[in-house]
Amino acid sequence: MSGAPVRRTPLPGVLEPAGRTIGAEERAAVLRVLDSAVLCSTFGGEARALEAEMEALYGRTAVACSSGTAALHLAVAAVRFEPGDEVITTPISDFGTVAPILAQNGVPVFADVDPVTGNLDPVAVEAAITPRTRAIIAVHLFGAPADVVALRAIADRHGVVLIEDCAQAWLGTTAEGELLGTFGDISCFSLQQYKHITAGDGGLAITADPLLASQMRLFMDKGWDRSGGRVHLMLGLNYRMTELVAAVARAQLGKVADVVKRRRESAEQLIAALGGGPAGEGLTGVVLPGLAGHAFWLFPLIVAGDNRLWAEGLTAEGVPASGGYLERPLYANPVFRGEPVYGTSRYPLDREYPVGLCPNAERLIGQTLVVLPWNEAYTKTDVDDIARAIRKVHADG
Ligand SMILES: Cc1ncc(COP(=O)(O)O)c(C=O)c1O
Hints:
The protein is an alpha/beta fold. 35% of the residues lie in helices and 12% in strands. The strands form two sheets. Strands 1-7-6-5-4-2-3 form a seven-stranded mixed β-sheet, with helices on both faces. It has a three-stranded antiparallel β-sheet with strand order 8-10-9.
């Protein structure tokens, strides 16, 4: 790297007040719950109010729970597939996307992704369908819309359930402006520290299907419907959201539209500053994300050189970046590579997940994908600095 770093002061990040929208509303929410002395959502009103507010935002029944992973577990459990059935999903996501499949004794089947967006390739998904397929879990990676129109059509054609993992895509839309989270039979959201809005941890699952909603609500609370004594109608866990979390989440939910708007505006500024978008060619060899519908949880770049070197270069310029987002595709983790799943058994896994399974995903992670943290607090100067750092690393080749 040549010369002084472009950026000398740290950019605002999600582990400090400057990079989070936590303020007077969240403080008042916490105190309201503490003063009520009711911290468990079975007996309080905050989690149920959060569900109502989520329903107002998305037009679907919401079930609050303890994490995004828990929300996905509610979703997968509500599908009620048989042990050994298959669920098709992406190799590029948080482990929380696949852990619930294994927890329900399902077999994750990884379909390859688009080489630029990293989102599931519908052609690969359809090719992976077998008589044992019961569901597809699509992730809107970094906030970019997966092709949910095509995935919905595939799910309908084959009679399988579509679950949207919207953990990274709060208020993202399709290019036509339709809300992500309204195409799936069930859609799941996370309130973990790094997400657009946070309550530390927390999750929400939404659905338009009353049966799926009631199954998820039961699974969230030990299979206990609470209306008729201590009867456990199905297997369930304790995935309840606490009242403290729900109260903070309500305050944060009120801010999510502004958070997404600001992230989109600064992303648009960066794309313009790099000469991308409809007006320009951009930097040779670098592919910028499309703006349409993107919720910009992170800002991804596709580069021609070595993505790890790019990330090192950007970080040295004061703009933290990650090469590849993950160290390896989900299927290259030990649990898929021969380690036992339960006890000493690999059950439910009945296959190998070899290198080369999803070449586009492997190329993104190993060679071409660079991700920049993104934040609603970025100023025009911050974005200018990020643009200058990218140009400099690009020029240094
Ligand atoms: C796409 C995706 N799915 C699932 C999860 C799991 O969410 P949580 O960490 O809230 O369990 C995350 C994030 O952590 C995620 O990014």
